[in-house]
Amino acid sequence: MKISRFNISFCLAACIMGSISCSEDPLVRYVPDEPETPETPETPVTPEVNHLIICDFETEDLGFRTNDKLEYSVIENPEKNAANPSEHCGKVVSAGAQWELIYSKERLQPFDFSKDGSTFTMKVNAPKRNGKVYFKLEGAGVDACEITNVTTTKNGTWETLTYDFHDRQLPDGKYNKIVLLFDAGETGSGETWLFDDIFQLKGEKDTDIKDNPNAVPEGMVSFCDFENNTLQFNINSSDLPMKYEIIENPFKEGCNLSDHVGHVVSGGHQWELLWSAQFENPLIFSKSTVFTMKVRSPKKNGKVYFKVEGPGMTAYEVTDVVVPNADEWTNLVFDFKKFDLPDGKYSNFVILFDAGETGADEDWYFDDIFGPDNTPAMLMRRLGTDPILTYGPTEPKWRMEHVANAAVMTPSESPDNNWRMYVRGSGYNDANEYHDQIGMFTQDASSFNPMARWNEEPQNPVIHHSIAGTCDELHLLDCAPVVGKDGVVYFYYQAVRGTLNAKLGSLAVRKSTDGGKTFSEGKMLKDGVGCSDAVYYNGKYYIFYGYGYDNGKLKVDCAVTDNPESLDAAQVTTVLQPGGGPGNFDALSVNGTRIFRLDGIDKWFMVYQGSDKNFDYPARFHVAYSDDLLSWTKVDNSQPFFNRGEAGAWDQGAIWFGEVFEYDGTLYMYYEGWGNNSAVADRDTPYFSGGHSSTGCASVSKNTFLKWCGLK
To answer: Contacts by 307-312 with C-beta closer than 8 Å and gap 24+?
Structure first.
């Protein structure tokens, strides 16, 4: 049983919408890396009260041992500087094996994550930039847990690497060993790696906000500072109206030296208030329950109330806060912890100055309102800063411009019981003609690693474009392989035909009887649509495809059939429509559906891309689930499943086709991202000039994902 994959590309958007002209010329030029900037000395992490020393080679030594021919020793620190002034450090010399490691002795006291924190740091002096350094925890009777997305950023100087196991939710008292892999997955030999000072962070230091008003604790953000962030405030109506305005700070002193502040003049009513506009994203109290605000009161012990509200929710307010002294800036703290408020429900606040009093014409000043971070962090975390497959002049010609739309077959799905991945490559044939074609990569099941290098088939591309006059004479896009009846592999994809300036796309299929290595000629199944995914289940083929309709909207239909090579008698159901996702982010289009199952969970899951701005240039992924592959429920969670990268990142433009698979208790996702690792004029311009598609990887633990879905 295999789930197929696919993406509606710019070519399909062009053929349906008529808004994009695709050229057979190279879409972009290769942009060389920018010159390296000089190294900046790093401030060392020192073992203070918020650190536990696990190994510093001075007072604590884990007694590391090594596998194979890897050399390990403890030496005098040859690079003593401000970033690492210690006397001794560990030294590793690579021997050329792909997975060389050192492992510690068992600690007498297993790690207590609840008490001592679940984040580790380690100083590393690497022989290269972007060297992969894996950090694994092991213990008797528990599954090993490994972080693989940390890479070095410097060459020949000390830096501190951080490994955060927070989202793994590891049990206390079970893990007592550390395993380290330097240059993981690579085969370089004779390279020297230095490491030192493995610390366990005990958590953020408690910060007394009253004593340190300029400190912003973890989980809080600025809501209003009247400089960069200015909330709209409204006043309540009464026969004695108060006044509100933004003014230049008339009292730059004490804890508030900012240029502008809010100014309120009391009108004499007992319950005068300011109420803010609705926030775009509701508050996330699991990150913090505290608000802070700087206030200058005209009187001693002036009362300030702070209230939070949300549509359909009971309002709660903190009423026991006063400004102790008159005519001086004071940082007030309003803590809502006792109310145990839910995330994602409260979306504005109300402030009452001199609450319950009737004094008139009194001047109150306020500034710098901080509160719980309402920026939903992504559920999935990117692994590494670079894609796992990318473009460029050093790559094979058939995929030197773009490499995307990965479709992974797990060993239980693959015909040969190993890991297999099909991808769409964009590049040139021997005649220097530009085409999109399909290649295959593999990994052995016994040594699989999601972040390791995949083995490329020597004969790639394994599926070529066809001759003139066929449905895929120009391009093949959006891989969707599925093993069907009698072990036959069916490969669904988007076929592109036509001329350079007038392309037409269709859903097509090819057939393989030799385990997915050679395929029949393409057969068109449905014109004007593109493939998303395919599933063979209970003797039927469920074929998902994107369908443009209603003046620029995009939905997902599913054709259910007994015949994998024809849709003539298929039952067609619309399974996903635009709108209804968190914040209606998917109001205009949904597509790129990828279907997957999880061990022990009797549900189907679908990752889909959506947008409220573009037909086919999405910036966000979300998830839906189903019992029958036809009726789907979008997850009710405002936290994004995954977003495109930040400005300047390789995936800063748009993302497509989140291909998710389960491995060792973790969900991994390969996805297509559009970008070019540099600043662009407007990254929201669809397919901006200079962009390429690459394939990246992200992950999340299985338990965290199920909780996010509301299924655990």
So the answer is: 307/349, 307/350, 307/351, 307/352, 308/283, 308/336, 308/341, 308/346, 308/348, 308/349, 308/350, 309/275, 309/346, 309/347, 309/348, 309/349, 309/350, 310/282, 310/345, 310/346, 310/347, 310/348, 311/347
Query: Is pLDDT at 187 greater than 90 in this prediction?
Result: no
User: Residue 15 carries which DSSP code?
Assistant: H
Q: How far is CA 136 from CA 44, 118, 180, 443, 701, in A?
A: 23, 12, 6, 22, 15
Per the listing, tokens 């964009």 go with: 426
| Beta carbons of 197 and 83 less than 8 angstroms apart | no
Element (H, E) at 458: none
Complete DSSP assignment for 233-267: EEE---SS--EEEEEE-S--BTTB--SEEEEEEEE
Q: Is the pLDDT of residue 500 over 80?
A: no
The set of residues, in sequence order, having a beta carbon less than 8 Å from that of 241 and lying 6+ positions away, is: 235, 267, 269
The pLDDT score that the predictor gives to residue 98 is 84
pLDDT digits (tens, 9 = 90+) for 667-681: 999 999 999 988 888
Average pLDDT over residues 30-44: 36
**How far are the Cα atoms of 601, 657, 668, 707 from residue 593, in angstroms, in the given order?**
19, 7, 16, 21
Mean per-residue pLDDT over the chain, rounded: 87
pLDDT > 70? residue 138: yes
Banded pLDDT at 143 (limits 50, 70, 90): confident
Q: Under a CB-based contact definition with an 8 Å cutoff, are residues 254 and 329 in contact?
A: yes
What is the rounded CA–CA span in Å between residue 190 and residue 504?
54
47 preceded by a cis bond (ω within 30 of 0): no
Q: Is the pLDDT of residue 40 over 90?
A: no
Q: Edge to edge, what strands does the sheet with 692-701 contain?
A: 381-382, 692-701, 666-675, 655-663
The secondary element (H helix, E strand) that includes residue 331 is strand 329-335
Residue-level pLDDT at 377:
72
CB atoms near residue 374 (< 10 Å): 20
Q: Are 180 and 195 spatial neighbours (Cβ–Cβ below 8 Å)?
A: yes
Angstrom distances, CA of residue 416 to CA of 258, 453, 489, 690: 66, 19, 12, 39
Residue 642 pLDDT greater than 70, yes or no: yes
Given a contact cutoff of 8 angstroms between Cβ atoms, the answer to whether 420 and 439 are in contact is no
Report the 10 Å Cβ neighbour count for 110: 18
Q: Where are the beta strands (DSSP E) in 185-301?
A: 189-201, 220-224, 233-235, 243-248, 260-267, 274-276, 290-296
What share of the chain has pLDDT > 90, as a percent?
A: 67
Looking at residue 15, its amino acid is C
> Which residue blocks in 5-65 are alpha helix, DSSP H?
10-17
Higher-pLDDT residue of 29 and 95 is 95
Which among 448, 506, 451 is positioned nearest to 477, based on CA atoms? 506
Contact 111, 172 (CB under 8 A): yes
Q: pLDDT by residue (tens digit) across 52-71?
A: 899 999 888 999 999 778 89
Q: How many CB atoms lie within 10 A of CB 253?
A: 11
pLDDT tens digits, one per residue of 290-313: 999 999 999 999 999 999 999 999
Q: How many helices (H) and strands (E) does the chain have?
A: 3, 44
DSSP, res 653: S
Count of Cβ atoms closer than 10 Å to residue 549 Cβ: 13
Residue 139 CA to chain centroid, in angstroms?
Answer: 29
The pLDDT, as a whole number, for residue 501 is 77
Q: How far apart are CA 3 and CA 491, in angstroms?
A: 11
Torsion of CA 512, 518, 520, 521, to 10 degrees: 140
d(CA 440, CA 712): 36
The mean pLDDT value for 662-691 works out to 93
Which amino acid is present at 271?
Answer: W
Give the span between the Cα atoms of 694 and 675, in whole angstroms. Answer: 8
Contacting residues for 320 by C-beta, under 8 A, at least 6 apart: none
